[in-house]
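Annex B.
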Amino acid sequence: MTAHLHDGPRPAQHFVRRLVASAAQPYRQAGHYAWHFARGKLGGDPAFAGLLARGLLTGRRRILDIGCGQGLLTSWIFAAQEAARQGGWPAAWPAAPAPAQVHGIELMRHDVDRANEAMKQEVAAGRARFTCADMCSADFGQADAVVILDVLHYVPVAAQDGVLRRVRAALPAGGVLLLRIGDAAGGLPFRISNWVDFVVTTLRGHRLTRLYCRPLAEWQRVLAGLGFEVQAQPMSEGTPFANVLLVARVPEPGQSH
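Candidate SAM-dependent methyltransferase: predicted structure tokens.
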């Protein structure tokens, strides 16, 4: 049975609040803005707690975060690992992620600098790595799990397909791609999410002229065409958006599609 945030509501909610504070804490050394952004994003975006509650990164040793921003997912994962080590992990949740390394790729240099400053101990220990590069040409290496949250729609469709092909090549049998997208067939919630996207990315220094969005069914078709087995999970709980998390797994040998 899949565990959700509302399984054992009070303990899980209290735990998430404590985890947000722990994961945001390293960003104090990266500056006032970095810390406040970390607290707001980690606490307001259901994807972070959802990844843990559903065990989607459990057992993954090499995690690649494409479009990592200032490295929030990395901080979140290692804060979760430490919280589990200290006890008090929600009983209904799968085990905390325990990767050997999280590699983040980000286009914006100032975000990479913030990530390196906040995560400098993990970077020095080789547990975290941040690369300033364009996802359309960056070396993805090999990974057991690839995470792409709300990023692909910034580049044209042909470039999106190119990134997805290279992600598939980076994953072994049993690997997983966690891709959050806005469903272009989502009506008003989709339009709201697009408007918020323009505002937030402008504040972060991006200059957008348009977004390249697709309906959920088309995303599923493209991923299936690359050999993934795809499940769609809602990922906008507590928000007015039309976000969906696509859990795309590479089949094991002998496994039917």
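Confidence is low (pLDDT under 50) at residues 1-10. The first helix runs from residue 9 to 24. Further annotation is deferred to the next reporting cycle.
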